[in-house]
Amino acid sequence: MTLVEEQRVVQHQRTWDRIWTLAPYGLLGVACAVSLLNATGWQHQSVTLVIAAGLGLWHWWFVVAHPDWCERRTWLMALYFLGLLALTTLLVMRSSSFQLFVPACYVLAFVTLPGWYAYAGAVLAGAPWLVVPETNVPLTLLNLATVTPLAALIGWAIRAMEREADRRHEVNTRLAAALAENARLHEVLVERAKAAAAAEERARLAREIHDTAAQGLTGIVTQLEAAEELSPAEPVRDRLGKARQLARTSLTEVRRSIEALRPGPLENTRLAEAVSNTATAWHEQHGVPTEFTLTGTPRPAPAETEVVVLRAAQEALSNIGKHARAGRVDVTLSYMDDLLVLDVRDDGTGFDVNAASGFGLTALRERVGQLAGSAEIESAPGAGTALSVAVPLGGTR
After folding, report:
1. Could you list the residue ranges that cross the membrane (predicted)?
2. How many domains does the chain have?
3. Which of 39, 96, 202, 218 is the residue whose CA sits 20 to 30 A from 322?
4. Burial of 245 (0-12, 13-18, 19+ CB in 10 A)
5. Which domain holds residue 22?
6. Which stretch of DSSP H or E encloses residue 5?
7. Of the residues 88, 114, 135, which one is the last residue of a structural domain?
8. Banded pLDDT at 2 (limits 50, 70, 90)
9. Band of the pLDDT at 174, cuts 50, 70, 90?
């Protein structure tokens, strides 16, 4: 049930409650009109009308003006109902026309009295009929024995419907609250998902920039520094050519990273050839003997797996060029049953793995971790460095 429908039901219930509280005035007015038509004396009739007006004020004060008393003030409602019966009995004794008002007492018993008090009120509601002048008391009691249970049954049915309506209203209220809470939690989850996606995208861009532009710029700086150290007699054109080529390659890689495409070396070649070309280019740039070895039978791998392995080779060679002062480098790519393994070893200065830090290694571990793979580094001062990256050939987790 929607909120609008629920409000409509509540408004409908309030309307009926208002009708039940005002209905006695209609019966009281009809009884007064009939009494005036049958008037025997104006003085007697005037007193009767004053009592009827008092009954109307009594009902207005206790029920119409203070509707919340019906649910919270049991003793006040008991006082009201006794006063109602007393005034009704007095009116019936003065004019039999007010028998028309007696059925309202049955209705008001269930409107104003809570719980089982209403059924006791229904039993007393027919009492004014017993004081009607020249009434046949045994016959009236017999009629009351029939009317009272019927009135009680109708009152019980009405209350049962009201309880069911209240229960549905409570259930709908709880459901609306639960839906509102679910909507709020959904918004929170969406916002968190957006934040996580943004963070992941920033991390991806950071890794791409580090693996492309940063490494390329490092190579350019290395070539320019080497050119500056050459004596005037030595040609610098070769060094500048290499720097220019690195700049062009880096620019291409940055553009591809921005477009979220596969790295250039993998666009039209297999992974083994791309890693071999990377090792050859690094050898030409640094002049360090570099050997590439392929073991196993190359098989197609998911694009993200090949990208991670290629980036790992680029990162390892870049770190060797910057820090290792190596005399030899070995790059091995191995296709196993369900693993793709890259090993990069050098005989350089080495380092303390526990003390090492840097974005490159962190980004590498993040990349490999996303593929349920592993990245292990073995090194020690003066003992060279060995990097081993293993990723499942099946791709991501």
Report:
1. 20-39, 46-63, 75-93, 100-119, 139-158
2. 2
3. 202
4. middle
5. 3-135
6. helix 3-37
7. 135
8. low
9. confident
pLDDT digits (tens, 9 = 90+) for 140-156: 788 778 888 887 888 78
> What residues are paired with 293 via a beta bridge?
332
Structure tokens at 348: 């350089």
- Written as one letter, the residue type at 377 is I
Question: Would 212 be classed as within a structural domain?
Answer: no
* β-sheet bridge partners, residue 330: 291, 345
Dist CA 325 CA 381 (whole Å): 12
Residue of higher predicted confidence among 83 and 227: 83
368 within domain boundaries: yes
| Domain end point (choices 78, 112, 135) | 135
3-state secondary structure of 56: helix
Query: What distance in Å separates the CA atoms of residue 365 and residue 359, rounded to the nearest whole number?
Result: 10
Contact 70, 112 (CB under 8 A): yes
Identify residue 94 by its one-letter amino acid code.
R
Higher-confidence residue of 40 and 388: namely 388
Q: Give the Cα separation of 227 and 207 in Å (integer).
A: 29
d(CA 6, CA 2): 6
Question: The CATH number of the domain where 375 resides is what?
Answer: 3.30.565.10
* pLDDT greater than 60 at residue 46: yes
**Does residue 49 fall inside a structural domain?**
yes
Structural domain includes residue 90:
yes
Q: What's the confidence (pLDDT) of residue 396?
A: 47
Considering only 33-47, 199-213, 268-282, 365-379, which range has the smallest mean pLDDT? 199-213
How big is the CA angle at 344 (ends 339 and 349), to the nearest 5 degrees? 150
383: pLDDT strictly greater than 90? no
Q: Which of 188, 318, 190 is nearest to 250 (CA)?
A: 318
pLDDT tens column, 243-300: 666 666 766 666 555 544 445 556 556 889 989 999 998 888 888 999 999 999 888 8
Pair 188, 196: CB distance under 8 Å: no
Question: What pTM did the predictor assign?
Answer: 0.42
- Check residue 396 and give left, alpha or beta (phi > 0: left; psi -120 to 50: alpha): beta
Judge whether 92 and 99 are in contact, CB under 8 Å: yes
Nearest to 256 by CA among 197, 209, 314: 209
